[in-house]
């Protein structure tokens, strides 16, 4: 990696060298264990953790309150109404579900491509995926008129003599969310199994020993167990990678199915895959930056990891930008009057702010990542990542809501304003994310310790052997 | 370091797993069975009535036609309950002092209808029409069972959605000539499907639309 040596950065520290794992060369196994596994009984920044947990608790409370209000009154408390029938519920569902995809991408695809630097990021990305899918998956249930009958979307031997309506996006949501949830939970748990065993062995209190011991499922690290483990882990990774593409293409079809101009460009499936992974990388970057400070693991998630995340953001960001271009181009190329009207409404209508916010954040601000200094600076990268999350949300708004406000009949044109309880539900959904996530931070090894040790060991062997 | 778990821990863990997984499957099976049980559907359960009216006696022994009391069944969505005057067309002459019939007489005196308790209650979102079924040759017996054998009326069929759909998906073998719908003992030697298909043509029953949602739900 001569490129690194010739940089104009301050003199390369121990982190700037040509390994595939981006870790300091002198990092010992003991240090890795201490940093990652001892967090459970000796948390480095307890006060900051309680602040995070408290914030999550407040937001979760807001969420529960919004859900109670919603269930008590029905979906009428929301602002969506004909012609804007798909509003915050679908918008935030797509936004959260998209975010989830990056976790699988980092973990599974980079595992199969044998990129050792993923080992610093995969655990937190998988946990993020799991929680994002939960946040997303609750939306389709909440937006039902009779939410207690949500299980009707599942095929089971019912006394109605009916299958779910397979033509309905509600059934697709169920299949997408449940499949994604099961695969990502399995992948996460299986990947953490050896770390749970290590945490069990390092635990000091009886309760922790038993809890981690149960989670470790009797892991002893024998050759046979490793052999099984490796096969199983790779098998699930192979299942998970196509899911990234299938699920996000799937919810682009959810829109393509609708009789709405502006939802039918053929670029939609790849456009949505890119956007999903893009937004997910943004949240992974934010969480990685936050965690390395919160857990004092700057040595494990190094500026080069952040640099790599920045590059991934830039690459997927440009793919998304191509989506914007192709989508607008197709509308004009089609020559269809209404398609053009809808696109003009996106560009200059009352909700044009969402289009320009998306362009500004996802295309404009993103370009800061061309500079290595920005990519490697935690604060700057966090700012860009936050902008991307906002931008991706604006993009979903622009894609989903603007076409509905400009319906086929001029007389049916109507704006959309989210109601208080709609907004509070969205803000509260961050509590659904933060509360379990902060508990994971406390009790689950947030970096894959055994995989780090494995790559460090390999490198030591290569150096000495 | 002392062992964390005892030697039997693995066995206990496996047993616990088995219990959890088996329990979940068990809960599912029980729920499925319960959903179809008479307890849930109300099939075979009699309902207390202000007057213990016996269909067995009236429709069975006395051979009174269903439509004598349920007069709206051929022309309206609801089969209808008889006004007290219908009861009195016989009971002003018969059993005039019977204690069992005191509420009927009181109803006539006070000009206030008897409050029968519903035996068959479909959900509000089901728009069932008696007339179209009768006109298409669905016998009373198909849904209500042999009421001429019931001393106190009870549901004879679960009347669940799958019960309705079973016939809506394939009505032919369940139809009978329009004139015979109220005949509890109707029987034919003709092939039912053959007959049914002929009747469907005659009564213009179009099976294509019968399973669309809006036929029953609006």
TrEMBL record, chain A:
Cellular component terms per the entry's GO annotation: plasma membrane
Primary subcellular site in the record, as a coarse category: membrane
Keywords linked to the UniProt accession: Cell membrane, Membrane, Transmembrane, Transmembrane helix
Cell membrane listed as a keyword: yes
TM region positions: 49-73, 93-112, 124-142, 174-196, 232-251, 271-291, 312-333, 353-371, 383-403, 423-444
Subcellular location: Cell membrane
Protein biosynthesis keyword on record: no
Domain of life: Bacteria
Membrane topology, as annotated: Multi-pass membrane protein
InterPro entries: NrfD-like
Family affiliation: Belongs to the NrfD family.
Record protein name field: Hydrogenase
Automatic annotation (TrEMBL), chain B:
InterPro entries xref list: Cyt_c_III_dom (IPR020942), Multihaem_cyt_sf (IPR036280)
Transmembrane segments: 12-34
Keyword terms: Electron transport, Heme, Iron, Membrane, Metal-binding, Transmembrane, Transmembrane helix, Transport
Domain Class III cytochrome C: 123-217
Annotated GO MF terms: electron transfer activity; heme binding; metal ion binding
Pfam families given in the database record: Cytochrom_CIII
Protein name: Cytochrome C
Organism: Pseudomonas mangiferae
Lineage: Bacteria, Pseudomonadati, Pseudomonadota, Gammaproteobacteria, Pseudomonadales
């Amino acid at each position: 990696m001569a490129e690194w040596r010739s940089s104009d950065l301050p003199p390369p520290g121990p982190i700037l060298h040509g390994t595939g794992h981006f870790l300091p060369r002198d990092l010992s196994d003991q240090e890795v264990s201490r940093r990652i596994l001892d967090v459970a009984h000796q948390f480095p920044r307890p006060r900051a953790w309680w602040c995070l947990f408290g914030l999550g608790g407040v937001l979760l409370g807001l969420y529960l309150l919004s859900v109670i209000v919603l269930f008590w009154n029905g979906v009428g408390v929301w602002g969506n109404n004909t012609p804007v029938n798909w509003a915050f519920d679908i918008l935030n569902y797509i936004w959260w579900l998209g975010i989830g995809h990056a976790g699988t991408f980092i973990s599974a695809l980079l595992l199969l491509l044998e990129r050792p630097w993923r080992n610093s990021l995969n655990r937190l990305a998988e946990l993020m995926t799991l929680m994002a899918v939960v946040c997303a998956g609750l939306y389709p249930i909440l937006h039902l008129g009779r939410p207690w009958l949500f299980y009707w979307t599942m095929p089971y031997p019912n006394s109605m003599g009916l299958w779910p309506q397979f033509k309905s996006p509600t059934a697709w949501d169920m299949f997408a969310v449940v499949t994604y949830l099961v695969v990502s939970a399995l992948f996460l748990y299986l990947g953490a199994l050896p770390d749970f065993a290590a945490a069990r062995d390092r635990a000091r209190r009886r309760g922790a020993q038993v809890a981690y011991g149960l989670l470790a499922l009797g892991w002893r690290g024998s050759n046979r167990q490793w052999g099984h483990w490796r096969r199983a882990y790779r098998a699930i990774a192979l299942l998970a990678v196509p899911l990234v593409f299938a699920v996000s293409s799937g919810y682009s079809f959810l829109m393509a199915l609708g009789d709405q101009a502006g939802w039918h460009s053929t670029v939609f499936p790849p456009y949505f895959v890119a956007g999903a992974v893009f937004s997910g990388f943004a949240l992974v970057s934010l969480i990685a930056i936050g965690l390395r400070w919160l857990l004092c693991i700057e040595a494990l998630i190094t500026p080069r990891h952040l640099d790599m995340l920045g590059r991934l953001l830039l690459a997927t960001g440009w793919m998304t930008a191509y989506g914007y271009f192709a989508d607008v181009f197709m509308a004009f190329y089609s020559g269809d009057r209404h398609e053009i009207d809808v696109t003009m409404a996106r560009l200059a209508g009352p909700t044009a702010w969402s289009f320009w916010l998306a362009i500004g954040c996802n295309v404009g601000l993103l370009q800061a990542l061309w500079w290595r200094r920005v990519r490697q600076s935690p604060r700057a990268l966090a700012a860009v990542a936050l902008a991307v999350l906002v931008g991706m949300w604006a993009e979903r708004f622009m894609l989903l809501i603007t076409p509905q406000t400009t319906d086929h009949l001029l007389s049916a044109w109507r704006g959309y304003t989210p109601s208080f309880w709609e907004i509070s539900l969205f803000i509260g959904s961050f509590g659904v994310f933060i509360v379990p996530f902060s508990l994971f931070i406390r009790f689950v090894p947030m970096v894959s310790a055994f995989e780090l040790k494995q790559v460090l060991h390999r490198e030591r062997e290569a150096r000495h052997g | 370091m002392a062992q964390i778990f005892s030697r039997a821990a693995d066995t206990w863990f496996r047993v616990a797993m088995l219990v959890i997984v088996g329990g979940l499957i068990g809960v599912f099976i029980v729920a499925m069975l319960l959903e179809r049980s008479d307890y849930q559907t109300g099939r075979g359960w009699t309902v207390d009535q202000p007057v213990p009216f016996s269909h067995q006696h009236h429709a069975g022994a006395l051979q009174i036609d269903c439509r004598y009391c349920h007069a709206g069944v051929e022309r309206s969505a609801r089969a209808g309950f008889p006004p007290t005057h219908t009861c009195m067309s016989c009971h002003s002459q018969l059993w005039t002092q019977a204690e069992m019939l005191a509420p009927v007489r009181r109803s006539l005196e006070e000009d206030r209808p008897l409050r029968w308790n519903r035996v068959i209650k479909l959900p509000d979102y089901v728009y069932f029409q008696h007339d179209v079924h009768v006109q298409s040759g669905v016998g009373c017996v198909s849904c209500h069972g042999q009421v001429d054998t019931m001393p106190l009326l009870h549901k004879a069929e679960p009347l669940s959605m799958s019960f309705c759909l079973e016939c809506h998906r394939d009505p032919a073998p369940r139809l009978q000539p329009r004139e015979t719908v109220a005949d509890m003992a109707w029987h034919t030697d003709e092939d039912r499907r053959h007959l049914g298909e002929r009747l469907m043509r005659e009564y213009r029953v179009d099976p294509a639309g019968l399973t669309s949602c809006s036929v029953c739900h609006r």
